[in-house]
Amino acid sequence: MTKLQFVDFGGTARMVDAPAGSTVMEAAIKNAVPGIEAECGGACACATCHVYIDDAWQAVVGPPTSMEEDMLDFAYDVRPNSRLSCQIKVTDQLDGLIVHTPERQA
Length: 106
Prior knowledge:
Elements: E1 2-7, E2 13-18, H1 24-30, E3 50-53, H2 58-61, H3 66-72, E4 82-84, E5 97-100
Parallel strand pairs: 1-5
Antiparallel strand pairs: 1-2, 3-4, 3-5
């Protein structure tokens, strides 16, 4: 299992386990992480699983696809490190990944 850390807008951190092949969004939903709504269920058709990738992890996670960038246009407070958590596949290389949830979802 890969360990992921979700840090909410208020600074509270939650560590969860995520199986390889799942997505960061699926791990958040399975573990009831506050701040991830995932209204489209991971279809990259909304922006309600928007997260900020911790600076130290940006190179490992990589940039968003063009389709993801289009959906991020609908997110609240988009930043250079914004990603949709439904588009980040969990791999062993992401063990320890830190993501921050925004103040609110769009």
